[in-house]
Structures are given as structure tokens and as C-alpha cells.
Amino acid sequence: MAHWIHSGNSRDPSLKMRLMWKSLDKMRCLRKRSTIPFLGFLITFLLFLNLYIEDGYVLEGDKRQLRDTSVHPPSSERYVHTFRDLSNFSGTINVTYRYLAGTPLNRKKYLTIGLSSVKRKRGNYLLETIKSIFDQSSYEELKEIVVVVHLADFDLVWCENLVQEITRKFAHHIIAGRLLVIQAPEEYYPSLDGLKRNYNDPEDRVRFRSKQNVDYAFLLNFCTNLSHFYMMLEDDVRCSRNFLTALKKVITSREGSYWVMLEFSKLGYIGKLYHSRDLPRLAHFLLMFYQEMPCDWLLIHFRGLLAQKDVIRFKPSLFQHMGYYSSYKGAENKLKDDDFEEDSIDIPDNPPASLYTNINIFENYDATKAYSSVDEYFWGKPPSTGDFFIIVFNKSTKISKIKISTGSDDRLNDILHHGALEVGEKLVGTKKGKQCSSYITLGEFKNGNIEVQDVEHKIVFDIECVRIVVTASQKEWLIIRSISIWTTQPPSQ
């Protein structure tokens, strides 16, 4: 039997949510249906968000005051409390969830995987998606994940029948605390009638995507404290084998660099990774702009608000869309991610490092873009004999394999025509940055590429630097498409 779990600190959360939606509806009515007022509203929101981030706007005293406020405050005070609730981007939204299956464990996991699902007119892929998540994970990986399914359809009979199927097929995962099924009751939702018809979308399309934004917001809100990282999937997805290990490698390689959202699929709201600490702000953001545009468009604005300018997407993709029919009207949706690989465990470790080069860089194609699985590259003007490209690790490491590719499909001649690969030790500081004082050559580039395996058997010391050296000047520009490094020790937890 389902039971209720309250999230937040209000005495009457459903009343507060209704007041919040009423307040937003008033703001909506005051704005003309044009893009200019929306941009003004967005800028105002940005300024306010900036104030919150810089000045710690929401204090603990405000939270206590909200808790102690009467359930029925005077009407003049209601909008004040609504405003405070909207401005508390660091806190969870007050929602009392129904637990349909499972309960969370006390121990924080490494990764939460969130899915929101509604009844489809044609096809249902949720059970296959859940099965793929568990089947493609090792026993050790399963210890580090929790899957949260938000059944966001208001048809309670459908929900109950689906919960019975989930419980029957995945009972051991539910008992182990690896699978939770929840629902945010309908009374917490805003009115889905009379919404703004941006982009001339039909009313039913606007209703569908607006509700979907709220579905995701409530899911994010619930998952805030379950793990260190959060991955959003859709309910019709197939996973690559050992995807968690691949994720950990990428996260480890990004240590010391700032990011808001990492992408492991180029489709929709599939394979988007966040720090769990950012989930409250993302949930509030989706609620505030729920009727403006689809969720995947809102995500672009959210990423920009938190100062991640560029998309950070990794190849190969770890998740594949497998459904044939959309949850919107059962329309055909046969989109596939052509970067998906079923077995992608061979993603490089690329330990945290600093990169230096004396090659003249073209525009913003800087050195760091060669040292990740992101679909970008380093691009420099014609190099001369003795020019270098150096990777200096934050910590010395044992390396098993190095693979470097230069040039691109549309610029086949922008390769390193003559070069050598070296590894070094004995790090020293110079005017141009840190470098190693002693190097050993591993091999020469051939046709712009090099791959060296069993490095740990050829080099006796822990490696502190990897260096590419130009051994002959060339007239062509140089693209370093990818630098991939595999280590012998597992990535840090």
C-alpha cells in the first residue's frame, strides 16, 4: 500500500503550492504574449539569482519564520511567503510524495538515476528501461546507484497496475533500496488550462510540455539528497554496459574544472548529469518557467545562468533512445543517437591535468579541448621544429595506454606530419609553467596518429608529464583531435 512522505517544512504544503501557482498566474496575466516582456522577466530573474548566489539571500531565520507561520495568513502576507518560497533556490519544494514502492536508504549513493513516466497511447518502455539499467550494471556498480521512477500520470488505476508489474519484476532491487517509485499528487500541480501558446504550438502540445516540466521539477526535488550526482533519463532508453564506470572516469577527469551539466547523449533529456547540490535550483527554475518552452530548451538557459557557456558532451554516448512512439499522442519517434556504443567501457581515464603548448592557437580551439571525450579539438597554426604540447598531471600516475589522433574528417591534412610522443618525470617550475626535466620517447607519429600500449611495462617510474614534440616544421595547420590516456589504477571514488 502506498504511503505518504512529506518533503519540505511547511505545515500545509499543498496550500503553499496553490498560492505559488496563483502568484505565477498573476504574473503571467500581466505580461503580453510576446518575447520582449519574457526577456525582461528573464533578466530580472537572472539579477535576482545573482543576488542570491553572491549574498546568501535566504537565511535560516527565513526558513524558521516560514515554518512558524499560520496555515491561513492574512492575504497581504500570502504573496510575501510565496515570494520567499520561490527565492529559496537552495531549499526543497514543499511536496508530500506518495511512495508507491520502496523507501530510500540512509546512506548517500554515488548516483541517482531519475525517470518520469506517463501513460502512453501506444507502447510502454518503462520496464525495459529499468531492466536495462540493472542488467548493464555490475554487482559493484549496483551498490552505488539508486533509480527513482516518478509515475506522473493522474490515472491512479494505471499507476497501481504498473506498480504491481514493477514490484513483481524488480522486487529484489526494491528490497535492496536500489529502486523507488513515487508520485507527486495532482493537487500540487498548477492549472494546465489557458497556458501561453508560445511558438504557435497547439493547446494540447503546450499542456503536455508544460506538465512535463512540472513532472521533472518534482522528480528533481525528491532526489536532492539521495546521492552526490544525478542522471536524468527518459522512460524509453537502453544503456551501455558498465555505464557507471564510464561516468566515474569522466567525472574524475573533470576534477578541478567547473561544470553544471555533462551530457552523455545528444537526444532530448537523456543522459544529462548534474551535481545533486544543483537540483533544488533546477527544480525551482523548471517550475518558474514551466509554460514557456520545452524542458530541453530550458536546460540550455539554466546551464548558462550558472555560467557554463558551452555544451560538454561526451562520446561515445552511453544511452540510446529505443522507443518508437512518443508519450505525446503516440506519435512516431524513431530518433536514434548514432554516437551510442553498447560496449563503451574503454572510455579513457584522462587523469586531472594542466595543459601547455607554445603552438600558436587559433581562436578558441585551446589545448584543453583535445584532452577529453568532448566533441571538440585543439587547432593551431603551422608548428615548427621543437614546438611542444605538454600534459602535466596533478598527481604522478601509472599509465597503461596512450592514444593520440590528429586531423579531422574535413581537414585531413591538418595532422602532425612529424612528431614524437614522450613521457617524463621530475617536475620543475619554469616561466612558461610546470614541466618535467627528464623525458623518455615512447614512439613516433605515423599518418598523424600514435597508440602505445603496455606503457607500465616500458616505463619504470610514475609518469608526471606526457609531451608531444614536433620533429619537423610543416606548412599545414595542426588539429589534435583527441588525447586518450588509460591508467592502471581505478579512478578515485
Please, could you describe this protein's structure?
The protein has about 500 residues and is of the alpha+beta class. Helices cover about 30% and strands about 25% of the residues. It contains 13 helices and 19 strands. It has helices at about 15-30, 35-55, 60-70, 75-85, 125-135, 140, 155-170, 170-175, 205-220, 245-255, 280-290, 295-305, 455-460, and strands spanning about 5, 95-100, 110-115, 145-150, 180-185, 225-230, 235-240, 260-265, 270-275, 320, 355, 380, 390-395, 400-405, 420-430, 435-445, 450-455, 465-470, 480-485. The longest helix is centred in the first third of the chain and has 21 residues, at about 35-55. The model is unreliable at about 30-35, about 50-85 and about 325-330 (pLDDT under 50).
